[in-house]
Design a protein that fits this description.
The structure holds 2 protein chains of 2 kinds. By secondary structure, chain A is an all-alpha fold. Chain A contains 6 helices and no strands. In chain B, a hairpin with a 3-residue loop joins strand 2 and strand 3. The N and C termini of chain B lie far apart (about 35 Å). The chains are: A mainly alpha, B alpha+beta.
Chain lengths: ~200, ~100
């Protein structure tokens, strides 16, 4: 179905971006990276929370500092890692294609689409774990509103499980399978992380 | 004054990623181009062989070549050119 694009100054830019997105197949790869890294982000921050909980950290400030620095590290890791790998892979693909058409595709539309894809995918890869993990940390920003820090921990873990369920539904929507079942599959990973965290807390 | 090119038939090789719908549409918007036909002759693993036929009142062939190069397509050969006031097809001869 054609998408209506209003006649704005950005129209041309949007049109080019959409064309590049189709050529470089950003949609599918972007979705995959988003789901994979958001999943990573939520589980990592759950690990951090369980660690803090096991170590009986009662200061929301410490939880936020460790959590937020983890978020930033994951964001940078996603951004950097995927920029380097995507640009290397796409450059190789472009060179291979260029050797078949006997042209240098670097300055062609394909080359531009490829470079655009690298940037977009790197942003998705960096932002998705960062934002997903930040979402889980939100209860600690308002820790003062809870009767005790334990409430913040449980609310955060609840948000994390909800986020995992949401990711499962998102993936189920892509694969057109049962959404609830797909959501439960991702929640199980979170429950496993919580259980291991509890066990470690008792060691 | 140089004669005007009215038909250009090109044998090109283009990456599969480039849509011939967009390509035909954008080619038809070039100056002097009246109509465009792109036919796929052969499909390979990553590239395809496309025959591009362009007709118009005054085709700027360099602009067309530049456009194709910018897209990432390579021109294998110029298979037919028609220039002048009208379009003329190649005449049948006794040897045909």
């Amino acid at each position: 179905m054609p998408i209506f694009i209003p006649n704005l100054p950005f129209r041309k830019w949007f049109k080019t971006a959409r064309e590049y997105s189709t050529i470089a197949d950003i949609g599918e790869i972007g979705r995959r990276y988003f789901a994979m890294n958001a999943f990573d982000g939520v589980l990592t921050i759950m690990g951090v929370l369980m660690g803090n909980m096991g170590a009986k950290v009662t200061s929301p400030h410490i939880v936020l500092t460790t959590g937020f620095s983890t978020c930033i590290a994951m964001g940078i890791s996603g951004l950097w890692g995927s920029y380097l790998t995507e640009s290397a892979e796409r450059k190789r693909d472009l060179d291979e294609l260029g050797s078949q058409t006997l042209t240098n595709l670097k300055d062609s539309k394909l080359g531009r689409a490829s470079r655009y894809a690298v940037v977009v995918i790197a942003i998705i890869d960096g932002l998705s774990p960062f934002l997903a993990a930040l979402l889980v940390l939100i209860p600690f920003f308002m820790a003062g509103a809870f009767p005790s820090i334990q409430w913040a921990y449980f609310t955060s873990l609840g948000v994390a499980l909800l986020a995992l369920f949401g990711l499962g539904v998102f993936l189920g929507n892509i694969s057109r399978e049962n959404l609830i079942l797909s959501g439960i599959k991702t929640i199980l990973a979170g429950i496993l992380a919580i259980l291991i965290g509890i066990l470690l807390g008792h060691v | 004054m140089a004669g005007k090119i009215r038909r250009l038939v090109l044998d090109t090789l283009k990456p599969l990623e480039l849509s011939i719908v967009d390509m035909a549409r954008q080619l038809s918007e070039l100056e002097g181009v009246g109509a465009v036909n792109i036919s796929i002759v052969e499909i390979d693993h990553k590239v395809e062989n496309a025959k591009i036929t362009i007709e118009g009142e005054d085709i700027k062939h360099k602009v067309v070549f530049k456009f194709l190069e910018d897209q990432g397509a390579s021109i294998h050969s110029i298979d037919e050119v028609v220039a002048g006031r009208t379009i003329i097809d190649d005449a049948a001869t006794l040897q045909d």
